[in-house]
Design brief:
It contains 2 helices and no strands. With about 260 residues, the chain is an all-alpha fold.
């Protein structure tokens, strides 16, 4: 009877130990299964993070390249604008000088025309005076008066000679010279305006190209900043995923040891 009782006690104790061991095994198996799942999830997360970091790295490289390219283009456009601006100002100055020269010559032509008109009127007056004096000298019978009238005729002829030979000739020469200079000035003005028009077009094009290049550069600069932010975020994500992977690996190894 005592042996039976002892045997029952041993059996009960053994069953309890078996049950405890089975429960521990079940828990260890479940823990390992969870650890395996967590490890696989960590592996996937780490791979995803590494891919994201790789993608963001390529994007950063492309953005950096575009930033450099647009920066160089903007710098070249600015130099072209400076060159065009430097060429435009002398062209504008020459055009202004040509217009001023034309205005001055127009005034000179006006003065010369008045001189010619004045000389022409004086010649007409002298011719009329000569005609009157000559008629009076030829018709007057008084000797003393005739002599005085002949002197009047001589004076009128002398004045007419000076007016036609000197005054009118000089006035005509002055008008001719002014007209010739005006014609040349017109040609100079036309050439200066053509140059100014071309330089203005080039300056407008250079200004537009500069604005476009600066806009592209600013866009590339903003794109580079966004790419850098994404890369930094991806790097942080990869570090976190690596930490999670390391922890999951550690947990998995411990669960295997418990199972063993």
């Amino acid at each position: 009877s005592e042996s039976v009782t002892h045997a029952n006690i041993l059996k009960t104790s053994s069953n309890r130990e078996i049950k405890t061991a089975k429960e521990r095994l079940d828990r260890a198996t479940k823990t390992e299964s969870l650890a395996n799942t967590a490890l696989q999830s960590a592996v996937n997360a780490h791979n995803t993070a590494r891919k994201a970091q790789s993608v963001s790295s390529r994007e950063l490289s492309a953005a950096s390249s575009k930033h450099t390219s647009t920066k160089n283009t903007s710098a070249a456009a600015f130099r072209a604008y400076q060159t065009s601006f430097a060429r435009h100002q002398p062209a504008a100055d020459k055009s202004a000088e040509a217009n001023a020269a034309l205005a001055k010559l127009r005034r000179e032509i006006s003065v010369a025309k008045r001189a010619v008109d004045d000389a022409t009127r004086r010649i007409a007056g002298a011719q009329n005076e000569l005609k009157k004096a000559d008629h009076a000298a030829n018709t007057n019978q008084d000797t003393d008066q005739a002599n005085a009238l002949r002197q009047r005729v001589a004076d009128a002829k002398s004045l007419l000679t000076r007016l036609t030979g000197t005054t009118l000739r000089l006035a005509n020469n002055r008008l001719k010279a002014a007209n010739s200079a005006y014609s040349k000035a017109l040609s100079t003005k036309a050439s200066a305006e053509r140059t100014l028009t071309e330089q203005s077009k080039q300056l407008a094009t250079a200004r537009m190209n500069l604005r476009t290049a600066q806009t592209d550069f600013q866009a590339a600069k903003a794109g580079l900043q966004r790419a850098l932010t994404r890369f930094e975020q991806a790097a942080i994500g990869e570090q976190l995923a690596q930490t999670g992977y390391n922890q999951a690996t550690h947990n998995h190894n411990e669960s295997k040891q418990e199972l063993a």
